[in-house]
Write a structure and sequence with these properties.
392 residues; four-stranded antiparallel β-sheet; globular; disordered N terminus
């Protein structure tokens, strides 16, 4: 789905990251600690932490501290008037800089120009990549690398609703064009050999295609009358996950046209890169006044207890190694959770990252998961991207 560049919520002011220090819990030593795993009520907001999904109460005595206790910040990079387009390596990334060409008036909206650069975080050097994109004027190129890195699914958007789709062999550079009409960017790699594209349509759901690394395509059938457009869609380890019009999370495979119901009251989902966990934010329903963030396994079972709650939960982003989940929370009650948080799957800790600022672009990890990019609104600079370096 194309990323919207409009504000998610009016009135939210980006707060500075410069005061961020060591996050709570980092390096804390524990002796004879007690871990409680209890799934009696996985959505009870009074229970804050993560267990292993056991059905009985288990108390474990430990003489050594866990392998990891939270995270710590080492450095903050600030990039003004820019958002992250993609990471090129651990230290380099592609950014898009937004400049005001004409200020807004009482009768006309402001006009902007956009330019892309290659930024080296270690040296601070910035190089224009205008001539390196391969795109014609007005075109936008997006690429999605296969899990093993051998192939890439490439979309060249000619305009708002039309794209040319290709499979590229990364070793040889050979490309195979895939003749598919699509209106959306909804899709993902099913495995190392197939890319699933939910092409969308101006009329209804549109087709779902299984595209092989050789450039061949095969239509996938899905028998579900409760979905007309895919707002939440994820693929991995041979399975496709989505939400229907009734906020239910379901799964199916290319050979199984009837979906399996996994969970109800789901507003968003994010599948971990290793395809072992699904981060799910719940929809407000049944008298519940807040949204909650839970971790499910791929069979639809809650793993432990909730890890976050608030008026709005969004931008869930797994680190590439699936050990950490970054997410944003907004709560009108300033005593509640606000800002960016990191859930550590090793220690089970949820750590706040700085003050209460809210992202307007997806949270973005570098390939090794040692850096996290956060883009927020700014009154003077339009947007500001903060890149957080974590201590290794």
């Amino acid at each position: 789905m194309k990323i919207s560049k409009r504000k998610y919520m009016a009135g939210l002011i980006a707060a500075t990251l410069l005061t961020v220090g060591v996050l709570s819990g980092c390096g804390a030593e524990q002796k004879d600690s007690t871990k409680v795993h209890d799934t009696s009520d996985a959505t009870d907001p009074s229970r804050f932490g993560v267990g292993r999904g056991k059905r009985e109460l288990t108390v474990v005595k430990e003489s050594k501290p866990p392998a990891e206790q939270g995270i710590a910040v080492q450095r903050i990079h600030q990039v003004n008037s820019a958002n992250i387009e993609q990471w090129l390596s651990d230290d380099e990334l592609e950014i898009q800089v937004t400049t005001v060409v004409k200020q807004a008036t009482a009768t006309e909206e402001a006009q902007y120009s956009y330019h892309r650069f290659r930024l080296d975080l270690e040296t601070g050097n910035r190089q224009s990549i205008k001539e390196q994109t391969g795109a014609d004027q007005g075109e936008v190129i997006k690429s999605f690398l296969s899990p093993d890195g051998k192939y890439s699914f490439i979309q060249t958007w000619k305009d708002k609703y039309k794209a040319v789709n290709e499979i590229k062999n990364m070793a040889t550079g050979e490309r195979y064009e895939v003749a598919v009409d699509n209106y959306l960017e909804v899709g993902g790699w099913l495995n190392n050999d197939s890319y699933i594209l939910a092409a969308g349509s101006m009329k209804g759901r549109g087709e779902i295609w299984d595209i092989s690394v050789k450039g061949t395509r095969k239509k996938i059938e899905l028998q579900d009358p409760d979905v007309e457009v895919f707002t939440e869609f994820a693929t991995g380890n041979g399975t496709i996950y989505y939400t229907d019009a009734k906020s239910r999370m379901k799964s199916f495979t290319p050979t199984q046209s009837r979906p399996t119901l996994l969970a109800a009251d789901v507003s968003s989902l994010s599948l971990s890169p290793d395809s072992q966990r699904i981060a799910v934010s719940t929809a407000r329903s049944d008298g519940k006044e807040d949204s909650r963030l839970l971790i499910y396994d791929t069979g639809g079972h809650v793993q432990g207890l909730l890890i976050g709650k608030g008026d709005l939960l969004s931008h869930q982003s797994w680190s590439p190694d699936s050990t950490k989940l970054a997410f944003a929370v907004y709560t009108e009650d300033k005593g509640g959770m606000n800002g960016i948080y990191i859930f550590d799957t090793v220690s089970g800790k949820v750590s706040p990252l700085g003050l209460s600022y809210y992202p307007v672009y997806p949270l973005s990890w570098n390939p090794s998961g040692t850096r996290l990019g956060i883009t927020v609104d700014d009154k003077e600079k339009l947007i500001v991207t903060h890149i957080v370096d974590f201590k290794k």
